[in-house]
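Inverse folding, one chain.
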């Protein structure tokens, strides 16, 4: 038989309030995430594979899920940032060689 915990009315009442607070907090984040690509980590952003080559993506371009948008270099490791869904790239919000913070918007999509 499964052990039963004593009833805790205060805890039972707090759980629905906590769930509602989490849902309210997550709603604006989800809306913002659908329109922007955020840096997953701190580092230096590279918008092209190597100097002199064309950028991975440009404003106005149709982007496909899984497509490389840029590379972020952190501690000599190059981390690809890929599109999560199909979209049209509206604006590039950073420049190549710029240091970015985790959570900083990199690209805006339509």
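Residues assigned per position:
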């Amino acid at each position: 038989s499964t052990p039963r915990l004593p009833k805790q009315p205060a805890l039972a009442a707090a759980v629905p309030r906590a769930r509602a607070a989490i849902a309210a907090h997550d709603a604006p984040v989800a809306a913002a995430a659908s329109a922007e690509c955020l840096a997953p980590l701190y580092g230096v952003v590279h918008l092209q594979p190597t100097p002199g080559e064309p950028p991975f993506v440009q404003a106005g371009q149709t982007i496909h899920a899984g497509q490389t948008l840029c590379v972020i270099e952190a501690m000599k490791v190059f981390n690809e940032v890929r599109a999560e869904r199909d979209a049209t790239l509206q604006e590039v919000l950073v420049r190549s060689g710029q240091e970015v913070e985790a959570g900083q918007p990199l690209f805006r999509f339509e």
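The mean pLDDT is 81. The helical segments are 9-35.
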